[in-house]
Amino acid sequence: MSSLPANIGDAFHDIDTPALVVDLDAFEKNLKTMADFVRKKGLRLRPHAKTHRCADIALKQIQLGAVGQCCQKVGEAEALIKAGVRNIIITNQIVSEAKLVRLAHLARQADIALCFDDRKQVDMASRIAAAQGVELGALVEVDVGMKRCGVAPGVPACELAAYIEAAPALRFRGLQAYQGAAQHLRTYEARKAAVEHAAQQVQSTVDLLSENGISCEIVAGAGTGTYPFESAAGPWNELQAGSYIFMDAEYGAIEGADGGPYSDFNHSLFVLASVMSVAAVPGRAILDAGLKSFSVEKGMPKVHGLRDATVIGASDEHAVLVMDTAHGARNLALGDKVMLIPGHCDPTVSLHECIVGVRNGRVESTWRIDRDGSSR
Amino acid sequence: MSSLPANIGDAFHDIDTPALVVDLDAFEKNLKTMADFVRKKGLRLRPHAKTHRCADIALKQIQLGAVGQCCQKVGEAEALIKAGVRNIIITNQIVSEAKLVRLAHLARQADIALCFDDRKQVDMASRIAAAQGVELGALVEVDVGMKRCGVAPGVPACELAAYIEAAPALRFRGLQAYQGAAQHLRTYEARKAAVEHAAQQVQSTVDLLSENGISCEIVAGAGTGTYPFESAAGPWNELQAGSYIFMDAEYGAIEGADGGPYSDFNHSLFVLASVMSVAAVPGRAILDAGLKSFSVEKGMPKVHGLRDATVIGASDEHAVLVMDTAHGARNLALGDKVMLIPGHCDPTVSLHECIVGVRNGRVESTWRIDRDGSSR
Predict the structure, then answer these.
(1) What topology is assigned to A12-18+263-368 in CATH?
(2) Average pLDDT, chain A
């Protein structure tokens, strides 16, 4: 008994469902598009591993030039470092002594930095790093509009940077300035304006630090929805996009530069499901994938490649698909396979233990997703 | 490095976060309340394992009198049978040959039944069970208002039952009649009316089967929101409630028999989180648990035991908690622990690999959740 939905070499139609499937051609094209972009711009790319939690993907990104990985949690970093990644930023604050001890252990094997927005975090990390005999990299997180974590730009950020500079066993390396609230603004102009506003705040903070003799080796931020704007000008030198490798329905719904649908990257990630029932209501097909196979907090998944077929609901292990046969949808039969584009890629991926890579109708890879303990 | 958030004997305040925590006193009381109820009513209880995916819990339920477990997927059944469960109904249709072969293997070790709502499913299951030399139990699923799976009550259900009776290697055992759409209707009367309507349909189907010489050993259904109504009178003899062991914010929001909040069972399940940042907006605390630790499709989690504190948003690994200090909420500090009641228990549980059982401020148990492959 294997818990994997497929083995390498299997035909596509033999993949057990539900399964998380990646179209390898589209995925590799996305990897290359972003790698080429940052190379041309002279920037660094540090993709966010929260999107994939998959060492195979992290190593591919690094092979194409990424300087390392971003993680949200120490558990994610542990899994990646075990697999050979050597340069990680934890894009989060850590307030647990036990977690900081684990992070200090990782700092013996890899270049590690984390984020701060409070002196108490600095005191705790400095004390533990010193006790463990390691040095941890430190970024000041600046709130540039997301209202989640981060100190205000300008003086508060500079004061915290100076405090870090004075703390033993921490090395100030720069700013974490991610405008998460801008990523899914529908229009191109709205996203551009939000990042340009953030850019002024970040630049003035960098300038103020410089006036105080503190230099920023790293100014990090950007996501799949805004990376062209952070790259265009201004203070950022390191991009942290993650979703570009997969895309999802939420990113598929924003506008691109030409006012048409955003198309910098292609949908490569799908939840493969089977029709398990067509008995209850004519024109409906019930799929064998539900809330335990895709996240719906950004909306129901979209149906890939089927005209006028819409997912109207989901429960734990079912999705309800409605086929508008009057407008050309074909009726689905028991056992038919359907490819769903999830609303939001990151929380969908971590529902699965494996990513099945497919090309030319065959299973070419089965990559493990490291999820046990990865949120801690 | 352990991926578990705690070890047995740890103090409550040393549990690493985020963690899925069960209050063992409340949990055991819930188990006993339902076990006593069905015993008094002379009914059978077959709790749904989709709620917990945890063999430790399944075995406790059986020890208290449950006749076995319901599963939604073959993968869930495999994990439970490996742990010693010997009587399982798959409350779903199976349309995959590979899955049916796996189910046939399980039928050599346990009493297995599954649901049907189409002759093609019957043909496939009958053929595979016969080829494997086993007999599978068969329930006809009847749609009693959920509009998801199931044939219509009455003649269609009887015709499918007769078709199953004639099929080799399948044994007709009864009806699956779950009114899932009634579980969360807010008022007690609305839930009662929905189940009474379903009861007529199920009873007339049972009667029609009887007239045709087909007896129903099992008439199964009911959930945590409606079990008193299925038990009150009518055709059901086996209850399939699952959420009663944990409760959640969604069940906490419905009315009980007295018009007050539903209180048949107590909240025993919590996501334990830590305050990781308080820097960006006064009166807000950012928690280290998000969409990868609790499901939000039924709403944000509720904050347990803190007055005027509300979760207003969640991203992958963050929740935003607002404290209305003007109305008595206390300001939370970095590192403070918060207990969240998830909106929906089932998809929250399967985000975790472990349930930490706590009593009197100590960790008493760490139960493994079997999630790898469990949706297949």
Answers:
(1) Lyase, Ornithine Decarboxylase; Chain A, domain 1 (2.40.37)
(2) 96
Taking the Cβ of residue A117 and every Cβ of chain B, the question of whether any pair is shorter than 8 Å is answered with yes
Domain spans in chain A, listed from the N-terminal domain onward: 12-18+263-368, 25-245
CATH assignment of A25-245, given 3.20.20.10, 3.20.20.150, 3.40.50.300, 3.30.930.10? 3.20.20.10
Residues of A in contact with B295 (CB under 8 A): 291, 295, 297
Beta carbon pairs, A and B, within 8 Å: 195
Domain B25-252 adopts which CATH fold?
TIM Barrel (3.20.20)
- Which residue out of B78, B277, B340 would a mutagenesis test of the A interface target, given it has the greatest number of A Cβ atoms within 10 Å? B277
Interchain contact, A279 vs B150, CB within 8 Å: yes
**In the prediction, which pLDDT does B1 show?**
41
* CB contact B30 to A (< 8 Å): no
The confidence band for A1, taking pLDDT boundaries of 50, 70 and 90, is very low
Neighbours of B360 (CB within 10 A): 8
pLDDT tens sequence across B106-159: 999 999 999 999 999 999 999 999 999 999 999 999 999 999 999 999 999 999
- Considering only the beta carbons, identify the residue of B148, B291, B376 that sits closest to A17: B376
- Chain A contact for B339, CB < 8 A? no
> Chain A residue with minimal CA distance to B160?
A279
* Complex ipTM over 0.95: yes
Q: Which residue of A has its CA nearest to B93?
A: A276
Closest chain B residue by Cα to residue A153: B280
